[in-house]
Task: inverse folding
């Protein structure tokens, strides 16, 4: 069936992602922040789905929302939430941060509007990949074109895991 | 199919699926009490109705009329949201589970599932991975040490076993080459040498099935991995502070999860709705659904049997078993399956 009410879902999902993204940094209770972050990740998964990338959406939910955020929540639950609530949330550098954000935003807009390749890319009709072969396509590019980058990333992750174990355990 | 017919058909399917699922949740509680009773040389529920068949109704009424207590020291919003989250995640995965072939009703060609998505398996894994939050938040928001420990144990256990569970499914995915549950089942039609059904469990995935079974027990917090609610050490774990319908929601979520896990095992390893199909056209529509139901029922019986037989693990044993035995086994199974498929291709 053809997609229905696409603009509505796009604005709904991106609005959800933005609002919960803001909530992540404004909530005092870290558990609430973590929950808002989960909501952001879920909204992003919905947007991936709208971009015809079901595999990425699924992995986003399973890995980020369902795996990594559980560990975040796990750690937050074990630390003293009461003390974190009394601490100040923003330090004195917020003016600088706003300036940097605005600058970055301007750069993004400039790139978006002026770049030759990007405008051409936007004009081109979206690649109509059959959804059923989406996962296969991801697999082909991961293990074909981007093999080296993929393997380097896995090696980095492995090193990080080993490092975490070494730091956490006194005697191995 | 126009949008309005699509919506009407979907709503009808949702109502039927929910009614069937919730009834089977209620009756699997009855079945569990009855079978456990007989295993332990007792009768189980036998007073309300013939064979105690109306016991689930009586229990439901009791849950509704009990006082819904909210302790004063809880984080209220999350305390109320946690059981809802649990039950929503447990029930909604039924949406992508196919229970039979296509049927033709009133000129419409309808699949026997609420919606046919081509990443069905990923959807189910995603929804169940969100179910962890119900348990973890219940433990935290109750603001009680037993609950917190139960919630932490549950989330650690579910995250650990989810990895072995996912890896055991990838073997099946390699053999059948699709994420769509319908295509996975279709690939299991037919027989080897004329009599052994071509189910994945007889198709080189025996080890994967074993890993899936073990991880599924841990994922649903059932004996022998029911550490999160170990009565003898944690009172009741994450739902210690819950009463009345909120407690019942956790209960429903647990049994709905068991049914989902059973459905998934049936679809991925036991050939889904395939089985001997004979007789008039009507029987040809009903029999696949019957075979599917029978396989899920067998899985539930196995669950209850294990509960009546095995003692509980210790927590370090649970973690060691998951990480040092199941996980390497799942990886080995994956490598061997991939090699065999690659050599054959």
Result:
């Amino acid at each position: 069936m053809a997609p229905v009410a696409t603009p509505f879902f796009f604005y709904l999902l991106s609005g959800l992602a933005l609002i919960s993204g803001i909530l992540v940094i404004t909530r005092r209770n870290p558990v609430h922040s973590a929950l808002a972050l989960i909501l952001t990740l879920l909204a992003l998964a919905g947007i991936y789905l709208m971009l015809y990338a079901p595999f990425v959406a699924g992995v986003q939910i399973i890995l980020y929302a369902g795996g990594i955020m559980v560990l975040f929540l796990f750690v937050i639950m074990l630390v003293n939430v009461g003390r974190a609530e009394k601490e100040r949330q923003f330090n004195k550098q917020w003016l600088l941060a706003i300036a940097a954000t605005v600058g970055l935003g301007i750069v993004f807009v400039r790139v978006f509007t002026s770049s030759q390749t990007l405008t051409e890319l936007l004009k081109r009709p979206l690649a109509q990949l059959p959804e059923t072969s989406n996962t296969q396509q991801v697999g082909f590019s991961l293990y074909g074109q981007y093999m080296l980058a993929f393997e380097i990333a896995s090696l980095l992750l492995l090193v990080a895991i080993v490092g975490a174990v070494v730091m956490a355990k006194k005697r191995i | 199919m126009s949008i309005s017919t699509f919506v009407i058909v979907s709503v009808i399917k949702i109502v039927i699926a929910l009614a069937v699922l919730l009834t089977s949740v209620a009756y699997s509680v009855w079945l569990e009490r009855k079978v456990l009773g007989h295993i332990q040389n007792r009768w189980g529920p036998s007073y309300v109705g013939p064979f105690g068949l109306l016991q689930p109704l009586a229990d439901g009424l009791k849950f509704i009329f009990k006082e819904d207590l909210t302790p004063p020291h809880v984080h209220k919003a999350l305390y109320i949201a946690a059981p809802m989250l649990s039950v929503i995640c447990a029930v909604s995965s039924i949406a992508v589970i196919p229970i039979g072939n296509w049927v033709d009703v009133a000129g419409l060609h309808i699949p026997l599932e609420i919606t046919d998505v081509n990443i069905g398996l990923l959807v189910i894994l995603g929804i169940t991975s969100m179910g962890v939050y119900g348990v973890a938040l219940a433990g935290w928001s109750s603001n009680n040490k037993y609950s917190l420990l139960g919630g932490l144990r549950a989330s650690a256990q579910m995250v650990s076993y989810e990895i072995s569970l996912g890896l055991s499914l990838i073997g099946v995915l390699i053999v059948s080459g699709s994420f769509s549950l319908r295509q996975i089942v279709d690939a299991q039609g037919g027989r080897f040498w004329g009599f052994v059904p071509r189910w994945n469990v007889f198709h080189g995935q025996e080890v994967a099935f074993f890993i899936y079974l073990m991880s599924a027990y841990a994922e649903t917090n059932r004996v022998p991995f029911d550490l999160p609610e170990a009565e003898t050490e944690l009172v009741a774990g994450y739902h210690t502070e819950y009463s009345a319908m909120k407690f019942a929601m956790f209960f429903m979520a647990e049994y709905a999860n068991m049914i989902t896990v059973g459905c998934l095992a049936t679809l991925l390893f036991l050939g889904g709705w395939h089985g001997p199909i004979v007789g008039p056209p009507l029987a040809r529509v009903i029999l696949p659904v019957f075979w599917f139901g029978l396989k899920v029922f067998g899985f539930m019986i196995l669950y209850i049997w294990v509960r009546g037989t095995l003692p509980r693990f210790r927590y370090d044993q649970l973690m060691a078993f998951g990480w040092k035995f199941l996980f390497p086994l799942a990886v080995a199974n994956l490598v061997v399956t991939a090699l065999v498929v690659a050599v054959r291709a």
Notes: Chain B is about 65% helix and 5% strand.
